[in-house]
Amino acid sequence: MGGDAAPDEIVRGAALASTATDIETMLVGDEARIQAILDQVAYNPENLSIVPATDVIGMGDDPRLVRERKHSSLVLAVRAAADGRADAVVSAGNTGACILAAADQFALLPGIRRAALASVYPRQVEHEGQDRLALLLDVGATVRCEAEELVQLAIMGSAYARRISKVPEPRVGLLNMGSEESKGGAVLVDAHARLRRQPAIRFVGNVEGNDLVRGKADVIVCEGLVGNVALKLLEGISETLGELARAAAEQRLVWRVGLRLLSQGVERVQALTDYTQYGGSPILGFEHLFIKCHGRSNARAIVNAIKVAAKGVRDRVPTEMREALARMR
Amino acid sequence: MGGDAAPDEIVRGAALASTATDIETMLVGDEARIQAILDQVAYNPENLSIVPATDVIGMGDDPRLVRERKHSSLVLAVRAAADGRADAVVSAGNTGACILAAADQFALLPGIRRAALASVYPRQVEHEGQDRLALLLDVGATVRCEAEELVQLAIMGSAYARRISKVPEPRVGLLNMGSEESKGGAVLVDAHARLRRQPAIRFVGNVEGNDLVRGKADVIVCEGLVGNVALKLLEGISETLGELARAAAEQRLVWRVGLRLLSQGVERVQALTDYTQYGGSPILGFEHLFIKCHGRSNARAIVNAIKVAAKGVRDRVPTEMREALARMR
């Protein structure tokens, strides 16, 4: 029930996944509305079931409402995973509420004090075999982080990328205001030194804001305030590019001709910032996987998110993270 | 002598300013090299003089070299302003060295503990009469800021924008990870509350990363780490767009046709991120004005920076800042 186009696009995405994959999806929400949408599309009932929920948490609601609305679709979906009836959760709903609902019901991985929100976003590729998607974390579950927490983010993000992107040794970077190890104040200097001595990750040093759209690192760690500003800036520029493309398409013939000729190039730039076309991003730090989709997710984004969640479960991503954290120095 | 295209583009810019304006520019640097460049261009000798300097600080040099290289062009240019022989300094050189040279020789404004580096960059306009340029500060002179320092940034930035952009009441925003006043941790919550009660500025509340490319605020304040990452991210995206435009222009005819048809649109997006085409950005907090240009500045950027510096002097920007700071609550 969460998302700007919910439940329609969410249900359509799950229906698509039911016919295109062998993943079993439980749709948690308003049974009658969900069934009415399903009646209009093709789906495989063997891979799709409905778990009724009588309440919702709105996109603009205070996240703390998860503690009152025990029968909301979000709270019930998280409970299904906590109880072992589901293996992972996918939601395009209220981000703060997703993090809080997970924090209330999921166990944290050993050594982790609080969850982190990652963002998967496309960027340019510099190295052979590199995934075109990078992982930026934390993007808003925290404000400040201690050095140890930044190292934990690096270890969890690296484990996630190793499994989901199948890059055997993801490049890990520390987002900073300069490439030198002396930059960024005491916490970042300490984090840099600790990251240097981690055996489980491939640390490539500090990265700067411009490196976010380049391929210097595959996993970029930072405190939530910085990550959130960077992510939303990428989002803002993506929207501006989208507005340009739409305006051009609507305007007049020469524009349309121009756009067609340039479409490859415009798409290349747009793909660089338009992360909404990609499934979802993980909330990391729990024993269970939670894939958080962008609020504007359409059916295609939901299918991709369901696939990412299933891949994460099959590839035992939480176990991978637990084992990597145990080797932390 | 500072800048990626120095001294050529710097000297050419000063020569242009000498014929196009009544501003008197002192070129500080290698006298023979400067004169050789001047011999190739048109200039008005009444508005142009050379102050010989035998040393330079390189773009990649440790900024602390300003304390050893007393005869570098940067140190001598700052000294000329500190001694009253010049009214303001313009440089496209090593940013850290510029800040340090100014800190060593200029007096801080009353109440200010350390200087801030601002960035002037173009963005979309939302309100009537709004300047298409916004001011983001601090972008790297600090790492963290206290709440009081963020308020000082707001007051100085607002005074600068009021004079330079001629917007009578610039909108001031606090860069944060949410629009609610409760967001961003103790320092930002405190800064928000203090900004609310400032009589001298028009505070529009928290702004988020995506607002940086929109017109919600004209002056955006943040600690240096966040501002530096945001600025360099804008720079990285600008470079990517520039590469696309160049690749398209070089590739083949249909691309060139497409590019011409779309040029207005591509330029609109590029202008949104390509801040290199605009003069320079101020180092704020001193009794003297220092306009820091981007390292890649060409002659046009230098002319604009010289004009901005002269405008700031004529409009008594440091006095405006001193008076606004005195009214701080």
Can you describe this structure?
2 copies of one chain form a homodimer. Chain A is of the alpha/beta class and 329 residues long. Chain A has a domain at 1-108 and 285-313: Isopropylmalate Dehydrogenase (3-Layer(aba) Sandwich), CATH 3.40.718.10. Helices cover 45% and strands 15% of the residues of chain A. Chain A contains 10 helices and 10 strands. The first copy, chain A, has an 8-stranded mixed β-sheet, with helices on both faces. In chain A, strands 1-2 form a two-stranded parallel ribbon. In chain A, strand 9 and strand 10 form a beta hairpin. In chain A, helix 1 (8-20) packs across helix 9. Chain A starts with 7 loop residues before the first helix and ends with a helix. The model of chain A has no long low-confidence stretch (mean pLDDT 90). The interface between A and B is large, with 51 and 51 residues.
Strand content of chain A: 5-15%
Number of strands of chain A: 10
Compressed to H and E, one letter per element, the order of chain A equals HEHEHEHEEHEHEEHHEEHH
Shape of chain A: globular
How many helical stretches of chain A? 10
By CATH, the superfamily of the domain at 1-108 and 285-313 in chain A comes out as Isopropylmalate Dehydrogenase
CATH architecture assignment name of the domain at 1-108 and 285-313 in chain A? 3-Layer(aba) Sandwich
Radius of gyration from the alpha-carbon trace of chain A, in angstroms: 20 Å
* Main sheet attributes: strand count, strand direction, barrel closure of chain A: 8 strands, mixed
